[in-house]
Structure formats: C-alpha cells, structure tokens
Amino acid sequence: MQHKTKRRFFARVSFCAGVILLLLGSAFLLLSFASITHLQIIGSFFVMIIGGFCLLLAIKLKRQSLYLFFAAFFILIGLFLLFKVTGIIPLTLKQSWPLLSVFTGVALLPAGRYRYGGIRRIYLTPSIALIMLGSFLMLFSLKLTNFSFREFMLNWCPVIVVMAGVILILLSISSNRDRM
After folding, report:
1. What's the CA gap between 175 and 146, in Å, rounded?
2. What is the DSSP letter of 142?
3. First vs last C-alpha separation in the chain
4. Nearest to residue 82, comparing CAs of 47, 127, 132, 114?
C-alpha cells in the first residue's frame, strides 16, 4: 500500500513539475521572439494545449485511442504553427496544406499502438497511405516538379488505376491465405 502511495505522489510531483517547466519555457519563448507578435505564438500554444487536453483525456479514459489521435494531431499542428511563426519553417500555408495529411498519418500510429498494444495493419496501412499522399502532394505544392498536378493526373491516371487494382488483388489474396 505504501508503494502505491509513493507512486501517486511521484506522479503528482512530476506532473506539477512538467506544468511549471511548460509555463516557464513558454514565457521564455515569448520573450525571446520580440519581432513576432505574442498573439501568433499564443495561437500555436493554444492548439498544443488542446492536444495536451486530448492527451489527458486519453490517459484518464482507458483505451480511448481517438483522444490520443487528436492529441498527437493537435500537438503536431501546434508545433508546425510555432515553427512557421518563428521562421524555422519558411513555408506559407498555401504551400504546406499537404502536411495535414502527413500529420494525420503520423497521429494514427500512436493511436493504433495505444488501442491494440502494438502496431496493427488496420492502423498502419492508412497511416502509411496518408503519409505517402501528403508527401506526394508536397512535391506539387512546393513546385519541385516540372509539371503540374493536373498534367500528372492526365498522364498517369491510368497507371495509378492499374496499380490500385493490382494492390487490391494482392490484398485479397493475402487475406484469403490468412484465413486458411
């Protein structure tokens, strides 16, 4: 019984220390960027605080991976906004919108791991697909290619449809083998 009391005390002390360090770090960050308006930084922190609240809900409500997904998603968006505001990432929002797909895919990974206690195909496949889709769209958003997305779709759409059919057939065959 005494061991359990010590663990609770340590958890509360570490939580309080974490909150104090978060507040101190935020204050120092606000003071260090004098050229940036405080409203911009506060906005990115607000998004991260929403993520922290979702994380708290995920911890308090057992096996609620949806809250963990939203926690990871909002924390990633908040960090991106903070890096964008501070100039570390010099992208406009018009250029960086495909990152939403990447953030969604990355946020699915801890949610699936938390829900099932390990990495499962049901979360891994859409996660990888979303990360690849966002990365692919970033090529066109950042104009790293010599042609537009429209030209790509006109020229490569039949190949993509054929590849999607092959992938679906292979998935069907592999799921049939798993049942045997």
Report:
1. 40
2. T
3. 49
4. 47
Which residue type is seen at 12?
Answer: R
* Cα distances (angstroms) measured from residue 102 to each of 50, 96, 128: 19, 10, 9
Q: Which of 97, 168, 104 is nearest to 131 (CA)?
A: 104
> Which runs of consecutive H residues, i.e. helices, occur in the chain?
2-32, 38-60, 65-86, 93-96, 99-116, 121-141, 149-179
pLDDT in tens, 36-80: 666 777 788 888 888 888 877 877 776 677 888 888 899 888 888
Report which DSSP code applies to 1.
Answer: -
pLDDT of 175 over the 70 cut: no
Judged against a pLDDT cut of 60, whether residue 179 lies above it is answered with no
Give 139's contacts (C-beta < 8 A, 6+ positions apart). Answer: 145
Give the number of C-alpha atoms closer than 13 A to the C-alpha of residue 142, restricted to the C-beta side.
13
* Mean pLDDT (the chain, rounded): 79
Reference 86, options 46, 32, 49; nearest CA is 32
